[in-house]
Amino acid sequence: MITSFAAAFVSVIGTVMALLYVRRKFGSVPLLFCRRSHMEISRHVESFLRSYGSQILRRYSYSEVRKMTNSFKSKLGQGGYGSVYKGKLLDGRHVAVKVLSKSKGDGEEFMNEVASIGRTSHVNIVTLLGYCFEGQKRALIYEFMPNGSLEKFIFAEEDLEHPKLDWETQYQIALGIARGLEYLHRGCNTRILHFDIKPHNILLDEDFHPKVSDFGLAKLCPKKESIISMSDPRGTIGYIAPEVVCRTIGRVSHKSDVYSYGMMVLEIVGGRKNVNTGADRSSEIYFPNWIYKRVQLFEDPGLRGISNEEDKEKAMKMVLVSLWCIQTDPSNRPTMSQVVDMLQGSLESLQMPPRPYLSSPPRSPPESPTTYQLSS
């Protein structure tokens, strides 16, 4: 029998799927804008590029893009906004070239990428090197990340090509992503909210240092402001903060990225998707609920690859921080700066968070948090 928690989860997921279907089918832009001619859209994007992109990013012609990718010979992956190919610049540097889908004619995702990461510089944010815009032909040129996306390293079962990472590496990846998000939220002149944090959008360099990528859904807001208005949900099912779908839960803000981060780190810890519809027992369908119960009762969570106390401590820190990040009420979640401090601090200093609920937040105050300590 499915628990009430799982039922609430299914209800929310159903709502998200319906809303995202409407968005994909009808678009999120006003009807008048959708009716713009290709020429009007091109003028709009060109005006934007003069303001944001032309001074700091190199502009490539489409023929140059074809040449650097060897006519799109080596495909690295496929995303919601287009395909990514491996390329090589004239100076010998390898690059990743994202060729955007023609169906996204309004140019929103293209402009989001240029405006958001075109002026950023951080070790945990992927570097945008240039772009191509020739009417319907649009591409973005990024630094090349040899190890690809985080996704293939945490969901692989017995994949010899992409073995499960050790706990020190997983911990450093979680910390690096937190630092990248902290920079987006606090280190830029304009606050950048990503809205699509998930393993697929975290890239790894040759040393497995993580970099946040894919800013097609990003929103920019003044640095002093944190609350933003949104006309429709954006993000990926399984990582979307509850307030993005149901505004009665709370206001959409940088705390929405915190929620997505927490859900992603739980998947890193568990080595599985947070929702497992094939689980034998209903209690194991939703991993955050399952892991919370185990930690609350000081039971062994049975995480793979833990061979010593150091691994155990890193794993427990990642679990507790994640459970704080996925609190239903945004005001109960930490900021990304606090997440960095929590990960770098001692396990003994972390408190057991209240149980996160996907339905509306409880009316009564949450139970008093207790300090979590390693069992011997």
Task: Give the biggest sheet.
Answer: 6 strands, mixed
Domain module tally: 2
The CATH topology of the largest domain turns out to be Transferase(Phosphotransferase), domain 1
Helix amount, in percent?
Answer: 25-40%
Spatial arrangement of strands, main beta sheet: 1-5-6-4-3-2
Q: Alpha-carbon distance between the termini?
A: 35 Å
- Secondary-structure-based class equals alpha+beta
Number of helices: 12
Q: Tell me the total number of β-strands.
A: 12
CATH architecture of the largest domain: Orthogonal Bundle
Sequence stretches where pLDDT stays below 50 over 5 or more residues: 1-35, 359-376
Rg is 21 Å
Tell me what portion of residues adopts beta-strand conformation: 5-15%
What is the CATH first-level class name of the largest domain? Mainly Alpha
Care to describe what's here?
- Residues 350-376 are annotated as: Disordered.
- It holds the Pfam family Pkinase.
- Belongs to the protein kinase superfamily.
- The protein has 376 residues and is an alpha+beta fold.
- It has twelve helices and twelve strands.
- It has helices spanning 4-26, 31-34, 38-52, 62-68, 108-117, 151-154, 167-187, 242-245, 255-270, 287-296, 309-325, 336-344, and strands at 58-59, 75-79, 82-88, 94-100, 128-134, 137-143, 190-193, 202-204, 210-212, 219-222, 351-352, 370-371.
- Strand 2 and strand 3 form a beta hairpin.
- The chain is globular, with a radius of gyration of 21 Å.
